[in-house]
Design goal:
Layout: H1 24-36, H2 42-58, H3 66-103
Protein name: DUF4190 domain-containing protein
Keywords: Membrane, Transmembrane, Transmembrane helix
Transmembrane segments: 27-49, 70-101
Length: 104
């Protein structure tokens, strides 16, 4: 017994993971660069990552790449914190240097 083939557009849906968000790789790379090399990239990873996470969550499972975006987002937060700490340390260093030179 043979069954007729279904017309085009019908049948079983395709299997496999959904396609990744277009900015998945960008957020991940900015997060890594922002943590390791240049902390000025970290806030961009944080902002773009948050936007991408919101879009992935709103897609209802049709867009993937959430784990990579989440890693880049967290690295962006850590890199931003290091940037802020470094700026505070630099400001304290300059104030201390001015105080030492001014008192001499």
């Amino acid at each position: 017994m043979s069954y007729p083939t279904p017309p085009p557009g019908y049948g079983y849906p395709g299997y496999g993971p959904p396609p990744d968000h277009p900015q998945t790789t960008t957020v991940l790379i900015l997060g890594i660069i922002g943590l390791v090399f240049c902390q000025f990239c970290a806030p961009f990873a944080w902002v773009i990552g948050k936007k991408a996470l919101n879009e992935i969550d709103a897609s209802g499972g049709t867009v993937g790449g959430r784990s990579n975006v989440m890693v880049g987002y967290i690295l962006g937060i850590i890199g931003s914190a290091l940037l802020i700490i470094g700026a505070i340390v630099a400001i304290i260093y300059v104030i201390a240097l001015v105080a030492i030179v001014g008192s001499a």
